[in-house]
Amino acid sequence: MKVVLFLTVLLALVFLVSSQSFKTRAAGSPQQQSSTSAAGPSLVEVVDFKCARSKQVVLDPPYTDQGPARAVIPQNKNYARNARINDPVGVRDPNEDTIDGRSAALEKITQEARKPPSKPVDGYAYQIKMQNAGNSPVEIVFWEYQFIDTTNTANVTRRQFLCGVKIKPKKATDVKAFSVSGPSEVVSVGSLANKAGNPIQEKVIINRVEYADGTIWQRKDWNFAEIGMSYRRAIATPWGTEMCRAL
Predict the structure, then answer these.
(1) Segment holding 118, helix H or strand E
(2) Which domains does the chain have, with CATH numbers?
(3) Could you say which of 92, 136, 163, 242 is the most buried, measured as most Cβ atoms within 10 Å of its Cβ?
(4) Does the pLDDT at position 61 exceed 90?
(5) Residue 102: pLDDT above 70?
(6) What is the 8-class DSSP label of residue 191?
């Protein structure tokens, strides 16, 4: 009897520890969730790239209703709510006729009326072509555009981007990004004296690839923690039609 009781307690403790470990991984950052990381070189290759001055209208994030919770009306009770699932398209939502619903609609109109018209912003357009040489579709790519001083290769300016881009296996896709930041304004004296060649060398590096099957590839000498704050800022607001955001 004591043996059975001991085994029961032991199994319960093992289940509790395993459950807590799973919750910790699920709540962690992408760096902590990369237990399925692939080794070796990246299967996403950059076959072409360029950077040029550009102007772009930077759109504000869409309006989101942050008002009070909807009033509890009979139409929101389980039976009535389930019955509305079969309503034809175009039937008015009864919540729109409540005080909270009308207040939210008026607040949205007010915010849109006060918002100044968007103006083009001076910046840089970054465009690269990515080739997926693997067998799994790509969903997310972290990459960077580097500007290297040709007379002092230790002087490197990095512009990093996060892109939600779907690339099918054995296919290539054009990826476009915009940033107000371009090449470094600091150029060495040696580069200025080198009139025969380009004082800045350009290069693109893939830092991290997340696949549709859940696997992740990450460059060995790239640390996700370095862009932690900019990553959280990039995903803090809803994405519109843009493909990439600067980090």
Answers:
(1) none
(2) 42-60+119-246 (2.60.40), 74-87+94-114 (no CATH)
(3) 163
(4) no
(5) no
(6) H
d(CA 241, CA 247): 17
For the entire predicted model, the pTM comes to: 0.62
Q: How confident is the model at residue 55 (pLDDT cuts 50, 70, 90)?
A: confident
Structure tokens, 30 = 């992408």
Q: Return the higher-pLDDT residue of 26 and 57.
A: 57
With residue 112 as reference, give the H or E element that holds it: helix 99-114
Contact 177, 239 (CB under 8 A): no
Over residues 185-208, the pLDDT tens digits come to 555 555 545 555 678 899 999 999
> Backbone phi, then psi, for 69, in 5-degree steps?
-65, 150
13, 19, 182 from 7: Cα distances, Å: 10, 18, 63
136: which 2 tokens?
A: 């799994």
Query: Mean of the pLDDT values across residues 169-177?
Result: 95
72/113 Cα distance (integer angstroms): 30
pLDDT at 14: 37
CA 88 centroid distance within chain: 36
Which amino acid is it at 49? F
Residue 217 confidence (pLDDT): 95
CB within 8 A of 177, min separation 6: which ones?
A: 125, 126, 127, 161, 163, 243, 244, 245, 246
**Number of neighbours of residue 145 by Cβ within 10 angstroms:** 26
DSSP state of 36: G
User: How many angstroms separate the CA atoms of 225 and 29, rounded?
Assistant: 9
At residue 97, the pLDDT reads 66
- Which DSSP state fits 224? G
d(CA 138, CA 50): 22
